[in-house]
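User: Can you help me understand a structure? I only have the sequence.
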Amino acid sequence: MNWLWSFFQEFSWEEVLIGVGLFMLSLIISFAAIVLVVVKIPENYFSSHYRQEFMMDSPFFVRWGAVILKNLLGVFLILLGVLLSLPGIPGQGLLTILLGLIMLDIPGKRPIEAKIINRPSIKAAINKLRARFGKPPLILD
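Assistant: Let's start by predicting it. Here is the structure, written out as tokens:
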């Protein structure tokens, strides 16, 4: 127990406050991103009948640049979600992982998304959030 006490004594109050501030900022940004995506996705996004047309009318280089940036953001969100899922770190880990999966363009992602979205607590939270913003509940197959 002494090693733990000596570890915490090495930090100044300024360092602790900066760490807490950065944590709170990242938590707020994570929540805002989750709310934005959950509200903006079409209600049939998780249906097998959904067809994605991301920037199809854009020029080739613009479209592929956006696709690459979207996939990089997806990987970042998945890694952040895994971090937020660790014990002792508050945050919406599974929802952040789901958000990252939505952003990725990889084959076979639909079953993983369906497994996450079909959890009763996740589905209820998403549909409650969508209802708050006047959006219909998600349609799942």
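Now, to help you interpret it: The chain has a mean pLDDT of 80. Residues 13-40 form the longest helix (28 residues). Let me know which part you'd like to focus on.
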